[in-house]
Amino acid sequence: MDVADIYAPVNFKNQHRFAIWISIPKRHIVVWDNIIKHISPKELDEVQYTLKPYTYERQTVGVPQCRAGDCGPFTLKYIECHALGMEFPKVLCPRNGKTIREKMAVDIFQELPMRHEWENQDNDENLGTYE
Questions:
Q1: In terms of Cα–Cα distance, which of 127, 23, 31 is closest to 75?
Q2: CB burial class (10 A; 0-12, 13-18, 19+) of residue 97?
Q3: In the chain, where are the structural domains located?
Q4: Helix (H), strand (E) at residue 82
Q5: 37 CB neighbour count, 10 Å cutoff
Q6: Quick one: pLDDT band at residue 92, thresholds 50, 70, 90?
Q7: b/e per residue, 44-70, with b = 16+ CB within 10 A?
Q8: Distance, CA of 51 to CA of 106 (rounded, Å)
């Protein structure tokens, strides 16, 4: 296979999500954590022992931070930006978390092949639900 890079969202202890970029040729992993205080460096170092022969770094400079609850959308935006060769935009900030989440939902809906079918359904069986 001709794969050099792998991007993945990581679910840490079912409480927090962050993004990783794995460079296979370099045997190196970059961690982009959007709430740095959520995982201590010691906790992240414990994971390193299961990663040999890969090295890792936790990038903190230039990584926009978010508030609790927005880590999932931020994680996906980090992956998208880096994969496309873009810097993380300055609009990735805690006050824009809700807007980013809504925009992602619209983008996903617009990518669905059956969306026009759903847009044109009459949904008659639900018309009187709230009357």
A1: 31
A2: buried
A3: 5-121
A4: helix 71-83
A5: 7
A6: confident
A7: eeeeeeeeeeeebebeeeebbbbeeeb
A8: 36
The whole model's pTM is what? Answer: 0.68
In terms of DSSP bridges, do strands 16-23 and 28-32 run parallel, antiparallel, or are they unpaired?
A: antiparallel
pLDDT tens profile 115-131: 656 555 665 665 555 55
Angle made by CA atoms 18, 55, 89, in degrees to the nearest 5: 40
Structure tokens belonging to residue 1: 């296979």
Evaluate the CA torsion angle 73, 79, 83, 87 in order and state its sign: positive
Architecture of the domain made up of 5-121: 3-Layer(aba) Sandwich (3.40)
Token look-up 């982009």 returns: 32
Residue in the block written with tokens 């996903």: 108
